[in-house]
What we know:
heterodimer, A: about 260 residues, mainly alpha, MetI-like fold, 13 helices, B: about 350 residues, alpha+beta, Rossmann fold, CATH 2.40.50.100, 2 domains, six-stranded mixed β-sheet, 9 helices, elongated
Amino acid sequence: MIRPPLPRWLLLPVTAAVVFLAVPLVALLARVPWMRLPALLSAPAAVDAFLLSLRTCAVTTLVCLVLGLPLALLLSRGTGRWAAAGRTLSTVPMVLPPVVAGLALLIALGRREPLGGWLAAGGIDLAFTTTAVVIAQTFVAMPYLVVSVEGALRSTPDDYAITAATLGASPTTVLWRVSLPLVAPAVASGAALAFARALGEFGATLTFAGSLQGTTRTLPLEIYLQREVDTDTALALSVVLIAIAALLVAVTARFSRGAWSRP
Amino acid sequence: MSSLGVHAALAGRGVDLALDVAEGSVTALVGPNGAGKTSLLHLVAGLARPTSGSVRIADREVAGTTWVPVHQRRVALLTQRPALFPHLDVLANVAFGPRSGGATAADARTRALAELDAVGCAGLASRRPQDLSGGQAQRVAIARALATDPDVVLLDEPLAGLDVAVATEVRHALAARLRGQTSLLVTHELLDIWTIADQVAVLEGGRVVESGPAAELLARPTSAFLGRLSGTNLFTGTALGDTVLQIAPDVNLHGLPDPDQPLTVGLPGLASIQPAAVALHLADPGGSPRNHLAAEVTGIEPRGHYVRVNLTVAGQPLAADLTGQAVAELALRPGLRVLAAFKATQVRLYGR
């Protein structure tokens, strides 16, 4: 079947869009000091930032899965006012300016605030720790996992879970052996998105966790710090982030293509 | 002994059902859309909670004063969609039930292979559900449903999604596998009743209006729905003699008494006549047929080699099967008044 063609003049805005999206990336890649890349990336501050980012993002993704999957499961079943409220609450961080998210976390968990003070009295001091980085990243990244998985759960026909139950599977068995495997592609792409969002997290982290080398200074913070004093290092670290982002996009695309077809 | 008893209401859906099913019998549930057939299956499966009354399976109360959840009811559910788990291969799909019931992997596998073999699908064990045809998928679903030794098998139009040739194969597989297995089968097909079921229950407006052995009910239907399903016209009226049924004031039908269940004078009775035996005339033809009834055409449906003409006679529906040529010659159209004629020997009269 040949579909009716799109009008040719569409090429004009399309070209503009492609140029607009490509030019900054190309410009950045053109300025990267490729020959000095290994040396720049092996500097202690760069290695610290890179390892810290990987570590915190891995933990963040794990926390997103542990907390976000149950939330997505419950929301996917929910109807009515409470479910709508829960859905709004769990997606707000997606659209919230990260610096506002950081401020909110600071006010809730800061040492001088009621909840934070209570935690500090119990020996738990979050401010300017790696834990604070993970909290900031989880706050902004979890919605991506929840939204992705909840959407997949909602579009899964009920009869798989019903059939599994009639076959004698307990609710827990249905969850592990049917419901979650059915949305595994969405869990994978949601986790990849959450990881990507956590990796790029800047505003909330800076506001809530500060910028201490090796403790809270993640890759984006290091890039921001170096962009004036040592542009070459900032560019080298940017290449790392671009590479990881490209990889995650590829992973996400792979899983959304590999969704279970439904007989 | 009753293996399944439903005496339960769903107030919100206007359903109040009473049905007892003997162990090992396959009961066909028939009735118009919205009559409560699927609600009945849901009550048994545990997918609907009765607002009053109770449900018993194999002499265990599962709903009423107690509530047994779906996964502890030992029921199997088969619908139009096979719903094979797409992330498991065919063997793992069939082994799912035994595994959930606590069988070892090896035992579950042996059982699954036996069930697949019983529906002629042993060769498909390592396939993915996505690679099966509709008929294969439904047969695997049958194997999966029976691999748990359910107390009751619930079937909601399991053949509706299949084309005719495939449905025939699956129908025979079902008939073979359900023999002696307490089952409820929702269907709109007479063939399903003859092939698979031994009992029939007719549902109308959320109630079970008649039930009994399939052969008896189809031979002497008393509900309009079963009459239509079994392809015969049904008139209700009062017996004036053993060969005369009054279906309206001054409208009498003459027929032959059913030897097994004859009319009793003064009591309600039914008259059954095949649509093919009804002739239509524009003017009174006279002649030998005893029954000449004033009728009005309400609709005309072409059905391949013949045309089904729907009429009303004294407020009751009557269908006549004519050739397209006859319909054209008489210029039949809705609203036209005609005379329906048929011989008394074509009318079977029986009591309720």
